[in-house]
Specification:
Layout: E1 8-13, H1 24-36, E2 41-46, H2 50-62, E3 65-71, H3 72-77, H4 79-87, E4 91-95, H5 101-109, H6 117-129, E5 134-136, H7 143-149, H8 151-163, E6 169-173, H9 178-194, E7 199-205, H10 210-213, E8 215-220, E9 229-234, H11 256-264, E10 268-272, H12 274-288, H13 294-313, E11 318-323, H14 331-339
Parallel strand pairs: 1-11, 2-3, 2-5, 3-4, 6-7, 6-11, 7-10
Antiparallel strand pairs: 8-9
């Protein structure tokens, strides 16, 4: 109604989870199986803190210790997510940190290094290999994470059937690819097996455009080059993303499965600067009452643009996007936008 569009807009809201995002869909499963395997501690990385919060909660549920390496710029941008993790019993370090050899190396080279998900992954892996009864738990990118998240799309298909409509456009934000894969993969399956003509759109920040400007090649999943090589769209494992507020999207690469679908032409990708993203986020908050996470707001921006295009063409479209988390702990970013100090980089 606010957009004066004939389009019907649906969103799958994952922010109702205890941790506030889609991340428990994989965190709980990983914590459970590691508990069964006899592990005592899990180590992980987190950007804005959604992943770290989810694993901290999951570890608390199953009696595991949890160590989180949180990208330094997000550690200070979203302090209450750090506090949430600590409330659930996790130990949280700003990354790069003094806790690992690689962290100390990065700090020696640049004491003001803002960090990146690639660096945080490197630290969590180093912690894991040097510790007993510890395993590394990844929050995105890898196949098993994408598989866990497909519960989102499977539910969405059933819910759209209940609504009596079928989406023309399916949208999700992308950083490492897990929430996008979660919504999109079940619909892509229908494209392949049933010939459905869905448009499936991945939305990334223009400051970290791994799909729209990256290369498809083998690259490391982390900055220290400790992971196996992954065939993915990448900006390079040593890429240092600008300090945008969507910390969960500051990753140099893209999930191999998402990359494969993009290379095959089964999905599309677009990129937006953060001021355009927050403009749409505020519009959404003022109409729907939900404050989106900055990451999720990228999907909101694309959905708004699709709705406006439908208005201009007079075409009725059905738009579905994944609202992967709430932004109640990202209010410093909204403060920057509303005060006019938020800049595109």
């Amino acid at each position: 109604k606010a957009l004066q569009t004939p389009a019907h807009i649906y969103y799958k809201y994952e922010g109702v989870s205890r941790a506030g995002s889609h991340k428990p869909n994989t965190a709980v499963a990983q914590a459970y199986y590691n508990k069964v395997a006899g592990m005592e501690r899990l180590a992980t990385e987190t950007g804005a803190g959604q992943r770290g919060s989810a694993l901290a909660l999951a570890c608390r549920l199953f009696g595991l210790q949890c160590t989180v390496y949180m990208v330094k710029v997000s550690y200070y941008q979203t302090p209450y997510r750090k506090m949430m993790m600590e409330t659930w019993g996790a130990t949280v370090y700003p990354s790069p940190s003094e806790q690992t050899e690689f962290g100390r190396k990065m700090l020696k080279e640049d004491p003001d290094c803002p960090g990146s998900l690639g660096i945080a992954i490197s630290e969590a892996i180093e912690d894991t290999v040097r510790s007993k009864n510890t395993r590394y738990s990844l929050g995105s990118v890898l196949n098993h994470v994408c598989l866990h998240q497909t519960v989102i799309g499977q539910e969405a298909i059933k819910q759209m059937e209940m609504a009596g409509e079928e989406p023309d456009v399916i949208i999700g934000c992308v950083g490492g690819g897990s929430n996008f894969a979660g919504l999109a993969f079940p619909f892509v399956r229908k494209k392949i097996t049933e010939g459905k003509q869905y448009r499936v759109v991945a939305v990334e920040p223009s400051a970290c455009p791994s799909m729209t400007k990256g290369e498809l090649r083998y690259d490391f999943g982390d900055t220290a080059m400790t992971t196996p090589l992954l065939w993915m769209y990448t900006l390079g494992h040593d890429f240092m993303p600008p300090k945008i507020h969507a910390g969960g999207l500051r990753y140099h690469g893209m999930a191999p499965l998402v990359s494969h679908l993009y290379n095959l032409g089964l999905i599309e990708a677009v990129a937006y600067p953060q001021t355009k993203v927050f403009e749409a986020a505020v519009t959404f908050a003022r109409t729907e009452g939900i404050i989106p996470a900055p990451e999720s707001a990228h999907a909101v921006r694309a959905a708004v643009d699709e709705a406006i295009a439908a208005r201009e063409s007079g075409e009725k479209k059905v738009i579905l996007f994944n609202l992967s988390g709430h932004g109640m702990l990202d209010l410093t970013a909204y403060e920057a936008y509303l005060s006019g100090s938020l800049q595109d980089v």
